[in-house]
Structures are given as structure tokens and as C-alpha cells.
Amino acid sequence: MALLAAVSTACATEAPTPRWWCPLASPSAAASGDPVLADALAHLDAQPRPMAHVHTQGLLPHQGIHDASAEAERDWPLALRAAVGWRLDGRPELLRQVARYLDAWAGTYRPDFNPIDETNLDQLFQAYALTRDALPAATRTAMAGLLRRMAEGYRSRLRQKAGSTYINDVNNWQSHRIKLLATAAAALGDPALVADARRRLMTQVAANIRPDGSTVDFAQRDALHYVTYDLEPLVQAALALSPYGRDNLLEARSPTGSSIAAALDWLAPYAEGRLSHQEFVHTSEPFDVERRRAGLEGYGGRWNPRNGATLYAYAAVLMPKYRALAARLGGTPPVLHACAPGTAGKPEAGLPPTR
User: Which residue, 156, 90, 151, is CA-closest to 122?
Assistant: First the structure.
């Protein structure tokens, strides 16, 4: 999992300027000991392994193309770490590594619009945004094409599912669709896509989160695992969209009175360790039982609060009250390393809302 990156200028081929929540650090000698930079440099000889399609959703390890897909998807965090490393250190070989990964995937991947399979593609979107101005023109064009296909495809599917009460149209599947639309829209800097993503986000808040802060996913799966898996993409979407409006989308209330902030507050006692929960005891999803029987970690027993670390790191960007909890849970998402010192969690100010 990764937080959304900041970028401040646009290339000539894609007109509105993309902006994100975090001002970027300039290359600095002080970055030489950064663990993300060290990891990026350690993988300079790694080569992309793109696939036209990836599929792990609903599969156990060793079933179908699960293993090949999982192996190929390791490219996405490698590309992001190379981009973060380049922002920190400025070495041209890191930028070339990013371009290699972006070229390989933009030229090979064909979206399936399965949001569970594709959710982590946001790491490629972030890698692109972090390096966009310095990328070769052909790489920018190819990635812009992939981003637009993803954004338009997910926007079309969200329109088709409007008003549906089918469970995968209101649970975490829908949250991941919205994240992919929002992050692609922000990477493109497209006002119409951004505005639509904002509307879709608030529609999902109304459909997925109850006024008391509990979620559809908790009722369906009886697992905090799926509460975090549902809320993380919603928070990521809010972060991507935050500079395009003056409101805090985490605190914004839907017509039902629900909000992402209320859901974070609902989960907080478990993340703080004051409450505990036995996972998946009453799940209505047979695949959860299948994974528990296969011995997959996290599909039984007590929920580990550390599984909320990434979620609260995201949330703390727009809700400072969660910074202490995020720090206690530990772990810094790689893209935070690209933020200028002291600016993590401080969105760019003064940007007009998207109309």
C-alpha cells in the first residue's frame, strides 16, 4: 500500500496542472541514508515483467494465474520506490528505471476493470506523477493513455452501477473503483474526471458507511480486515482529490449523515488496542472460510491493530488527531519519503475548487 504523491507542474501534452497534497522534496545529499532510496538503488538491475492481464481476486496461491500475477505486480512498488528515490537523490539511473517500468506496463497492460486485481496500479500512477516532467515524451504519452483508459473505464462502470444495491456495488469493490478513478483523474489533472470522482466518493460514503461509522463490509464479513480494506481506498481517493476543493473530504458528510471520519473514529478503539475482535467468525463470504482453511494469515483469530497502520497514516494527512496513532502503529508508506521535510500531511493551499 502507498500514499498519493505530490507534483507541482504539468507537461505540455496534458493541460490542466496535476496537483497533489504533498509538496515534493528536492534532491538532497541528506537523503543518502533513506531506506526507500536504498531499496530503489538495490533494484536498479531489476527488469519489468509486465502482463497484459493480472488476476488474483478469488484465487488461492498456485491457482490459475495467481502466482504469475503476484510476481508481475511486484513491478508496481519497485517503480514507485524508484520514483521516490529519484525525487530524493536525483540520480538519472533511477529516472531511467522509472521510465522502463512505465513504458513496459503502459505498452502491455490491458485493463480488465476488476478493481481488486487493479487496485495497486495506483502505485504506477504515483510513480508517473512524481517523475512526469522529466520523463521522455513517449513515456508521458503512453502513460497518459493508460491513465485515461483506466479513468474513463471506471467512470463508465460507476455510472452503470449507480443506485445498485448489489453487495459488490456498495462494498470495498466500489471503494476501489472510486480510488482508481480518483487517482487516475488526479494524475491527469482532468477537471471533469476530478469532479466526477468527488461525486462518486460521496455517493459511496452514503452507501457504504452508516451514520454510526460502521461499514457494509463489517456487516458482510465480520472482519476488521475488510473495514481497513474498504476505508483505505476511500482515504486515498480523498487525498488525491483534496487539492481540488477547499473541503476536507474525510470529514464531509453524506446525505445520510455518514462520513469517512466517522468510520475512522468507529475503528479507532480497535486500532488503539482498547477493543479486540475475532475475525470472520460470522462472515457470509464462503471464500473467507476457504482462505482460513488454507492457512492464509489474517483470516482467523484476533485482528492485529498493526493492520490499521497504513490506513491511519493516510488519514493523519487530513486529520492531525490521528498522527499519534499512526506513529504508534508504525510504518511510513514509501511515497511519504518524497515529501519535503516537515511538509508531510500539509496539502497545498490556495487552490481553487474544481467546477
Answer: 151
Grid cell for residue 343 = 511538509
* Domain CATH for 59: 1.50.10.100
**What is the rounded distance in angstroms from the CA atom of residue 351 to the CA atom of residue 186?**
14
Which phi and psi angles does 248 have, rounded to 5°? -90, 110
Inside any domain, residue 242: yes
For residue 130, give the 3-state DSSP assignment: helix
Using CB atoms within 10 Å of the CB of residue 260, give its burial: 0 to 12 exposed, 13 to 18 middle, 19+ buried.
Answer: buried
24 is written with which cell numbers? Answer: 515534493
23: pLDDT confidence band, cut at 50, 70 and 90?
A: low
Residue 3 lies in a domain: no
Residue 284 lies in a domain: yes
- CB atoms inside a 10 Å sphere around CB 247: 12
- Rounded distance between C-alpha atoms, residue 87 and residue 266, angstroms: 36
Bridge partners, residue 278, by sequence: 302
At 339, the pLDDT band (50, 70, 90 cuts) reads low
Number of domains comprising the chain: 1
Whether the Cβ atoms of residue 241 and residue 198 lie closer than 8 Å to each other: yes
Range of weakest confidence among 20-24, 75-79, 213-217, 337-341: 20-24
Rounded to whole angstroms, the Cα distance separating 31 from 97 reads: 18
Decide: 180 and 189 in contact? Cβ < 8 Å: no
* Domain around 63: 29-338
In a domain, 94, yes or no: yes
**SS3 (DSSP) at 302:** strand
Identify the three-state secondary structure at position 243: helix
C-alpha cell at 168: 459488490
CB–CB of 201/242 below 8 Å? Answer: no
